[in-house]
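User: New here, please read:
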Amino acid sequence: MRYALGVEYDGSEYHGWQRLTAHDATPDVTASAPVTLQATLEAALSKVAAHPVATICAGRTDAGVHAECQVVHFDSEAPRTT
């Protein structure tokens, strides 16, 4: 199933939106690589879904930039109850 999110954030402490480790869809955000919003969101979604989750974003921001209602989607077959 595909899910869409509208996210908003204060990007002051992040190195922009885009994940910086192309080889890994859900990098360890505690690693030495700069922390990005995409990597942080993917780590949280992966924890909730109990499987790796990769996001697709309608745009991206640079380091220190904030956003309102940035659209992101991801696919997951994690079982959900209503």
In short: The chain has one helix and three strands. Residues 44 and 52 are 10 Å apart (CA to CA).
